[in-house]
Write a structure and sequence with these properties.
By secondary structure, the protein is an alpha/beta fold. It is built from 14 helices and 15 strands.
Length: 469
């Protein structure tokens, strides 16, 4: 589908509506039908069909009148269930919020999607409080990977990734505090971007350090570029949101292409993962006409992941509410209790020391990526794992060294997952890390990769979200 890759699914839907070949109402009905037909994936946890139909009808009337419409006019969207949608509950996949009433306002990213005239259809599954690299919780259960039932789509944005990989919806939101966009994108065969810190602002905005942010996932580079541009921009009241992607990067020459199996630490990666990664690095280097320069494992200090964990666990607990977590322990999944206890136990001295150590990590990557250099790593260093995440963990969270993602949340550099092969029949993701501010440049390089080594738009047995006209 060369033309579809060139214009993207979103571009195709927009053009079909402009030609009056499709209506927003028809797109919403398709989303509702596909979501119901693939309920066994358990990707979607809430549907607001009446509101979606009403919004679609409104878009169709505006189009008939000739009104000016936004870039996502009439496009159905699913929202990760840790982002507020006015009129819908936000459960965070936790029994602590299972009886939550409807949100009164939209999350910043949801508001930006509505401003582009997108139609919110419902919400997607995640791990409890987005604290785990699976999408399983005590409220809704586990989400399955469309590529193989019983295998996790990753997390914590796994419900959104599964919905995209199954063609249930053309847009589904994600957030990334330690890899929660890139990990499910890798395991579901999608593109997934963690923007430069400050491009879209922190999530939640009240946190003092911008480790977590919203990030787009898509099956085509054209769609990813559009969503990245729509999601970026200043946010009033959020001091972490200070600039957008640097457009000057799109014309800068590419420097060196570095590759390593480990960003932090020296633990070996799974043998089959290393084989696929080595092949992908060679192909990527050829695609961008560069030689790959291999670095030993441990580009950053071995403690980088622990530094991230100290900062993020403390802020995560504060974000959720330390008093709520203390009094509601019996309602929490045992898998997240270790993380909660770690956050509750961080002292001010430990937090400030981690903040200082974070600056040292930023400097190391800034120096490595100077002059337009890239760093390639496996996004996930383990073989595909079950929906419950039992990959060597002993009742707590999965080991952080199963992933190469958290370090980029720590340093703030943009990191993009691109599909790059398969491990045991499940997609493998290559993480491409660039200098801070180079988000659009990374997307342009992904476009080169897309032409060189195209990947399926959806998992086998599913169809892209394109109704016949």
């Amino acid at each position: 589908m060369p033309d579809l890759r060139e214009q993207g699914i979103l571009g195709a839907l927009s053009r079909a509506q402009q030609r009056r070949d499709l209506t927003s109402s028809r797109l919403v009905e398709l989303a509702l039908h596909r979501t119901a037909a693939s309920a066994d994936l358990n990707a979607v946890v809430c549907i607001d069909a009446d509101a979606a139909r009403a919004a679609a009808d409104d878009i169709d009337r505006k189009r008939t009148r000739g009104d000016t419409l936004g870039m996502l006019a009439g496009v159905p969207v699913l929202v990760k269930d840790n982002m507020d949608v006015a009129g819908l509950p936000t459960t965070h996949g936790s029994k602590l919020h299972a009886g939550a009433g409807p949100a009164l306002t939209d999350d910043r990213q949801v508001a930006r999607l509505r401003a582009a005239d997108a139609v919110i259809v419902g919400k997607t599954n995640l791990s409890e409080f987005a604290m785990e690299a699976i999408s399983d919780n005590l409220v809704f259960g586990a989400t399955h990977n469309p590529w193989r039932r019983g295998i996790s789509p990753g997390g914590s944005s796994g419900g959104s990734a599964a919905a995209l990989a199954a063609g249930l919806i053309p847009v589904a939101t994600g957030t990334d505090g330690g890899g929660s966009v890139r990990i499910p994108a890798a395991l579901c065969g999608l593109l997934g971007l963690k923007p430069t810190s400050g491009v879209v602002g922190a999530r939640p905005a009240r946190l003092p350090v911008e480790l977590s942010c919203a990030g787009p996932m898509a099956s085509t580079v054209a769609d990813l570029r559009l969503l990245a541009q729509l999601g970026a921009g200043p946010a009033y009241g959020d001091p972490s949101c200070v600039y957008g992607p640097d457009p000057g990067w799109t014309t800068r020459p590419l420097g060196k292409v570095f590759a390593t199996t480990r960003v932090a630490g020296q633990q070996p990666v799974a043998a089959d993962v290393e084989d696929v990664f080595t092949s992908a690095v060679g192909d990527f280097a050829r695609a961008v006409d560069r030689q790959a320069h291999w670095l030993p494992p441990g580009v950053l200090p071995a403690a980088a992941d622990e530094i991230w964990a100290t900062i993020y666990a403390a802020e995560d607990v504060y974000s959720v509410g330390s008093d709520l977590l203390r009094t509601g322990r019996r309602l929490l999944d045992t898998r997240v209790l270790a993380w909660v206890d770690q956050g509750l136990g961080v002292t001010l001295e430990e937090y400030l020391a981690a903040r200082q150590a974070r600056n040292d990590c930023v400097l190391v990557l800034d120096q490595l990526l100077a002059e337009g250099n890239l760093l390639l790593t496996p996004t996930v260093t383990a073989a595909p794992y079950p929906v419950g995440g039992s990959t060597g963990d002993t009742g707590g969270l999965m080991p952080i060294d199963l992933f190469n993602t958290a370090a980029m949340n720590l340093t703030g550099h943009p990191a993009l997952n691109v599909p790059a092969g398969y491990v045991d029949g499940v997609p493998f993701g290559l993480q491409v890390v660039g200098p801070r501010g180079s988000d659009l440049w990374l997307i342009a390089l992904a476009e080169v990769w897309e032409r060189y080594r195209p990947w399926p738009l959806v998992a086998p047995g599913y169809e892209p979200f394109l109704p016949s006209c």
